Amino acid sequence: MQVDAFFSFTIAVLLLLSGKIVTMNVVLLRKYSIPEPVVGGLLCTLVVTAVYAFSGQKIGFELGMRDFLLLLFFAGIGLKADVRSLLTGGRPLAILLALAIVFMLLQNFTGLAMASMFGLDPRAGLMVGSISLTGGIGTTLAWAPIFAERLGISNAMELGIAGNTIGLIAACVIGGPIAAFLMKRHRVAASHDTDLDIGASFERPQSRLDYFCVLWAILALNICLIIGLSINNLIAMSGFTVPAFVSCLLAGILIRNLVPYAIGATIQRLWPGVEDGLALVSDLALGLFLTMALMGLQLWQLDGVFTFVACALTVQIILSAIYTAVVVFRFMGRDYEAVVISAGFGGITLGSTATAIANMTAVAQQYGAAHRAFIVVPLVCGFFIDIVNAVIISAFVE
Question: Which segments cross the bilayer (predicted)?
C-alpha cells in the first residue's frame, strides 16, 4: 500500500507534533537531548513494521517533499552564519575531517573483519562500513551494483540498506547521551547563548513573531535556494558533483555576508523577529525532514542478513561512541563546541548530515548555541567526506 504525497506529508506533521509534545513532557528525553523528530518517526517505523509482521502488508510513503526540506534547512544555516565565525573554523574543520578519515578506515577494517568471521567475502563487510554508514543511502545505491556485478556479492544492496537503516536509527539516539556524558564527565560549562542557529532555546522567552517576520524569512530562504541550485548546476557543468544542500549552504553564507549591511539592519529594525522567523522555518524543515526519513525506513529489508548486520553494526556503534568520547572530544578542544561537535559525530559516521545537525540542535536547545559547530560539521559531512570516502572505498575494492 502506497500513501500519496499529501497524506504522507500530513502524517509527518502529525508525527513531528507528537514527538515535540512527548519530548516536552518526558524529562528523560530532554536530559539526553533525543531529537524530537526521532520520537514520532520511530513510532511510525515500528507501527509499519508491526503491520508487515502480522499481515504481510507493506506500507510505503511518497516522500518527494523530503529532499526540498533538506535544502531549505541548510539554506537557513547559511543565512545565519557570520563570516567571522566561519573564518575561525578553518583549523577545527581540518581536524574534524582528519578524525573522520581515520574513523572511515576503522569502519572498513571492522567491516572486513566481521564479514570474515561470518564466513562471507571480506569485501562484503565494506557494505556495513563507510559505504552505508558514513556514505549514507546515496553512496550505498551507487556502490551496491558494482559489488554485485564486479565482485559477485549478490546481496550487496540488502547489506548496504540494512546497515544504513540501523546506523541511521543509532545515530539519532547516541548523540544526545554522548553530549550529556561528556559535559558531566569533564565538567564542561554550557554556553547559555540563546541565539541558536536552528530552533529555539528551551530557556529563551518566545519572541513575538508576526506575519512579516515569517514572510521575510521565507523570501530569504527561497532566494537562497534559487542561488544555491544555480551554483550547483554550474558546478555540475564543470564535471564535479557536490550535494545540492552544500551549494545551498554556501549560497546562504554568501547572502548573509555580502548583502549590504544597511539592508539587513533596516529589516532588523522594522521587524526585529526576522532572525527568529528564520530559525523557526529552518527548525520545521529539519524536523519534518528527519521525521520523513525515519518514516521511509523499511525494517523488513533486514530479513536474511539480520544476524550479520546486527553483530557488525553493534561493533560499529560501540566503536563510534568510544572514538567520539575519547578522540573527537579531545582533539576538537575539550570545550562546549567540542561537545556539540561530538553529538553530531555519530551523524557523520553512522547516519547522515541531517542526523548530525538534529543531534546538535537538540543539545544546543538544552545547553546553548555553538555557532562554529554548525558551520564545521555540515561542511565536513556534505562536501569533503563524500570525496574522501569515494577514494577510500575504491582503494579497498581494488
Answer: 38-56, 68-87, 93-114, 126-147, 159-182, 211-231, 237-259, 280-300, 306-331, 338-361, 373-397
